[in-house]
Amino acid sequence: MTTVNIRPGINILSVLGHLNYKPWYALGEFVDNAVNSGIEKNWNRLQSLHGHNYKLRVEIELDGTDGGRIVIRDNAAGIARADYQRAFRTAEVPLDRSGLSEFGMGMKSASFWFTNTWTVRTKAVGEKFTGKVRFDLDKIVESGLEQLPIDDEAAKLEEHFTELVLLKPAKMPTGRTIGKIKKHLSGIYRQFIRDGKLELWFDGEQLRYEEPKLLVAPRDGSGAPQTWKTSVSISLPGNKTAKGFVAIREEASTAEAGLALFRRGRLIVGSGDEGYRPTSIFGQPNSYRYQRVFGELHLEGFGVSHTKDAIQWDGLEDDFLSELKKQMNEDPLPILKMAEEYRAKTKTVSLTRAAQSAAVSTAQAITNAEPVIAAQRDEQPTITPPPVELPTPSETAAKRELQLHFKDQDWVITIDLVNDPAIEEWLELSQSNSFKSPKAVGIRMNLAHPFIQRFGGSSGEHIEALLRLAAALAIAETVARDSGVRQVGTIRRHVNELLRKALSDPGITPLDE
Fold first, then answer.
1. E-assigned strands of 107-220?
2. Which of 102 and 130 is assigned the larger pLDDT?
3. Predicted confidence (pLDDT) at residue 128 exceeds the cutoff of 90
4. SS3 call for 61
5. What is the domain partition of the chain in residue ranges?
6. 272 CB neighbour count, 10 Å cutoff
7. The pLDDT value given to residue 359
8. How confident is the model at residue 506, as a pLDDT?
9. Span between the terminal Cα atoms of the chain, in Å
10. Per-residue b or e along 2-37, where b marks 16 or more CB atoms closer than 10 Å to that residue's CB
């Protein structure tokens, strides 16, 4: 054989550069071919040839000189001469589609996505020749070529490898993309790396998958500590299954939490910072479960997109998610509930440093408050009780009403968060007649107040802490007034003045000095 047929020809080849690849998925096509050849199809043969220490080794190298090139090299079994026509023709589906090479597109589509000019040099184990084929899309299109020559050279029977060289790639990885490629590839092929069958190298660095540390903590804050990891097993119509585990990270991570969905040992969805986090299970990015829950699920019976970056759910994704959510909250390890409620104890070093910083800053702010304190000491105490109703704000951010029953009276409490810069006070209180039942108590916190703007931000956790403090002050004032304490509203008035005039200032911290 001196030539190889590349039909169906230029019409398909010309559009491969426009596929919706990401660099790590495009490079993954070459790794897939190596895994298919070295592990899935020829593992026993290669171990017999080299002994049990044989590992599949895939190397990816970037060279930025002379227009640049990307080299992908492996020690898999090579492309047999009998398979050349299938391997080099686009969309030539292999007879055995049970492995990672199932569409007959990977090497060609990924290569042409990077560049119009590339070569593949391969030597199959047990054969006498090394073959080299060069693809030049401009020349193929210009001449309407359907056959490409094969350059042969003699080789030893025991040699085996494949080497691709992508010349002058239009999509040469640079900068931060290189770091993302390494992170994604180590995640995509983590199972083969864990099994000790694959060594994956990128620019001389061996890629390793860093296993997240699991949360070990007692449930509900009491009892013996438990490792928060549990198995999942889901069966769906059409002999489709999903099996694996879900767990809680020891340290929260917005970027690295989420599920990883595998098929045939290779990750399809959820590598790197692209974890699979459907809203119905994980909530919004600011939720604790979004940042702490992770897991690995191996799917069987499902198809994938031809770029191997999406699962073909066949209308079953909602059923899958419903059952997954159910199993993730089952006793004895309700993963979602624990992830949402658990709060990590701040490390002592970090806590001490934060405490020192807060003490210095607050001390400076109190020093600045001396004029306000002096003026308050000369003011008359507040005698007037809170109003029955508060003025209507320009904007209400949230409002909730709850009912409480004490042994002698019903209370209706309204919690109101407003966003109105025209309102001067941080905390306002309204109250109906003390002896009227039900007793109406209104608690209003102003999000536009400079104290909230400085220390509350938009974080739900921080706003909740400040709101709870405001509610405690308001309820304590109400109970004290009902108990006969006179002029108790003076405290709230002074708090509002201090927070606006002095304690909203940033002050100084050790980091500022």
1. 117-123, 129-136, 147-149, 151-154, 161-167, 198-202, 205-206, 216-217
2. 130
3. yes
4. strand
5. 3-206, 216-341, 352-501
6. 22
7. 79
8. 61
9. 77
10. eebebeebbebbeebbeeebbbbbbbbbbbbbbbbb
CA 41-46-50 angle, to 5 degrees, is 170
DSSP secondary structure string for all residues of 343-394: -PPPPHHHHHHHHHHHHHHHHHHHHHTHHHHHHHHHSPPP-SPPPSSPPPPS
The reported pLDDT for the residue numbered 143 is: 73
Largest CA distance in the chain: 105
| Joined tokens for residue 86 | 């299938």
pLDDT digits (tens, 9 = 90+) for 172-190: 999 999 999 999 999 999 9
- Strand-strand pairing, 216-217 and 226-227: antiparallel
Given a cut of 50, whether residue 139 has pLDDT beyond it is yes
Q: Residue 215 has what pLDDT? A: 95
Alpha carbons 281 and 321: distance in angstroms, whole number = 8
**Secondary structure of 377-391 in HEC code, one letter for each residue:** HHCCCCCCCCCCCCC
Q: Name the CATH code of domain 216-341 (choices 1.10.3720.10, 3.40.50.300, 3.30.200.20, 3.30.230.10).
A: 3.30.230.10
Q: Are 133 and 148 in contact (CB under 8 A)?
A: yes
Candidates 250, 261, 259; CA nearest to 225 is 250
Rounded Cα distance, 428 and 457, in Å? 20
Per residue in 72-102, pLDDT tens? 999 999 999 988 877 777 555 555 555 565 5
Q: How confident is the model at residue 438 (pLDDT cuts 50, 70, 90)?
A: confident
Average pLDDT, the chain: 87
CATH superfamily, domain at 3-206? Histidine kinase-like ATPase, C-terminal domain (3.30.565.10)
Closest CA to 340 of 351, 327, 329: 329
Give the whole-angstrom CA distance, residue 365 versus residue 426. Answer: 17
Are 269 and 198 in contact by the 8 Å Cβ rule? The answer is no
* H helix count then E strand count, the chain: 17, 23
| Phi–psi pair at 238, nearest 5 degrees | 80, 25
Which segment of 106-110, 157-161, 256-260, 415-419 scores lowest on mean pLDDT?
Answer: 106-110
* Helix, coil or strand: residue 230: strand
How would residue 372 be classed by pLDDT, with cut points 50, 70 and 90? confident
Q: What's the one-letter identity of residue 211?
A: E
